[in-house]
Write a structure and sequence with these properties.
Strand content: 15-25%
Number of domains: 2
Largest sheet: 8 strands, mixed
Number of helices: 14
CATH superfamily of the largest domain: Alpha/Beta hydrolase fold, catalytic domain
Shape: globular
Helix content: 25-40%
Distance between the termini: 31 Å
Oligomer: single chain
Structural class: alpha/beta
Strand order of the largest sheet: 1-2-3-4-6-5-7-8
Order of helices and strands: EHEHEEEHEHEHEHHHHHHHEHEH
CATH architecture of the largest domain: 3-Layer(aba) Sandwich
Low-confidence stretches: 1-30
CATH class of the largest domain: Alpha Beta
């Protein structure tokens, strides 16, 4: 594996930097804009055999692997949930081994993670399964880390759909620049997918692209996996009726409450929500530096043990700012896509129950869009993703006419 660092600028400067020669600082290139490319760092250079071995180790079908993959961490300009300038990072994966001509782009948005160092651009872990699959099938892939994950500053605004979409859209813009200057230009056609939290983001990003948010990109298909599309109607009730397992209930609820409270006036003091001693530590557990295991090790085994009795009842019957925080993120399926949409999930999922996906399908149908639901059966949350990801590659091939 080789690494090199580049600054944004003219094509010759960027390409020189890829092989180790520094280019002019971005500040010298003119006014700053959302989606400006700041840097590119090569993080992987893999043969088809390497890709197949990685996927097999993750129990993922490798039949679609055709090319090797070169992957880069890109840093770019975007905005915070409050609209202030910031930066973010993400993974750009490109097919290698002779794949020529302009490339279609897959926008791939990842699931819940608390440790910034597990983001797609930072670690060769499960967050790279989908990017490697799609790049090895012959498409470019933009996999944003989101705000506050990877090498981006600040804390991650977990489940804030609006900022996840803005960061993802700006990642597409930066990817367009990086791909062009690396000699791998894009066609402008975008295929959207994402898993869990990223399934919700994929639907919302698809909506933004369909509305012409950026004229450079044309949405061609959507295929999200197990997204929490209906927090108020399905996911939150499932945390309390046994459909979501206890471990995930504790993790998702504590992460969601601490992040959303920075955006909505849910509580003034953690003691109003969390029992002691958890109220004293819960916020700092989600600073992006703790692993999932460390977070869960510091919290109790069930949500009922974690939150106060009064707030437990508020969660079961939400109103006010609490309900607003849920509903702000529950409109991702409330539109009519003009492209093929297929929704993937699993009846055995006890993290994001399939009822979320069925709710999304109903919302789409209410707008006149029929979206088939693919039920992967008696597998868990990650199993639904591992079964779905290769199927989505084949779906995108069929839409593109390359199957």
């Amino acid at each position: 594996m080789t690494k090199s660092h580049v600054r944004a600028g003219a094509a010759t400067a960027l390409l020189a930097a890829v092989v180790g020669v520094a280019a002019a600082p971005a500040q010298a290139q003119g006014a700053h804009s959302r989606g400006d490319l700041l840097s590119v760092t090569r993080v992987a250079d893999l043969t088809p055999a390497h890709i197949s071995a990685f996927l097999k180790a993750q129990d993922v079908d490798t039949a679609g692997v055709r090319y090797g993959v070169r992957a880069y961490r890109i840093t770019y300009r975007t905005i915070t949930p409050q609209g202030r300038p910031t930066t973010a990072t993400g993974l750009l994966a490109l097919p290698a081994d002779g794949r020529r001509g302009p490339l279609d782009l897959v926008a791939d948005t990842h699931g819940t993670m608390v440790d910034r160092d597990y983001a797609p651009s930072a670690a060769e872990d499960s967050g790279r399964i989908s990017p490697y699959l799609h790049a090895s099938a012959g498409r470019a892939v933009a996999a944003p880390d989101y705000l506050g994950l990877g090498k981006g500053p600040g804390r991650h605004p977990y489940m804030d759909t609006a900022s996840s979409v803005s960061a993802s859209l700006d990642m597409l813009r930066a990817t367009r620049t990086a791909a062009r200057e690396l000699g791998r230009p894009l066609t402008g056609d975008v295929y959207g997918t994402g898993f869990s939290q990223g399934g919700q983001v994929a639907m919302a990003l698809g909506k933004a692209l369909s509305q012409g948010t950026d004229a450079h990109f044309r949405l061609k298909a959507l295929a999200p996996v197990s997204g929490p599309y209906d927090i108020a109607g399905e996911e939150m009730p499932a945390l309390f009726d046994g459909r979501v397992n206890d471990t995930s209930s504790v993790l998702y609820l504590s992460y969601w409450l601490t992040a959303q409270n920075r955006l909505h006036p849910i509580y003034k003091d953690a003691g109003e929500v969390f029992r002691q001693p958890y109220a004293q530590v819960v916020d700092q557990l989600f600073d992006g530096r703790h692993t999932t295991e460390e977070v869960l090790g510091a919290l109790p085994g069930t949500a009922k043990e974690m939150v106060t009795p009064g707030f437990y009842e508020r969660l079961r019957h939400p109103s006010g700012a609490l309900l607003d925080a849920m509903r702000d993120n529950d409109r991702t399926c409330d539109w009519k896509p003009a492209v093929p949409v297929r929704l993937y999930s699993a009846a055995g999922d006890t993290d994001v129950p399939i009822a979320n996906t069925l709710s999304c399908a109903r919302q789409l149908a209410a707008h006149g869009k029929k979206a088939p639901v693919v039920d992967q059966g008696a597998v868990d949350h990650s199993g639904a993703f591992r079964k779905s990801a290769p199927q989505i590659v084949r779906l995108f091939d069929s839409v593109a006419g390359t199957a």
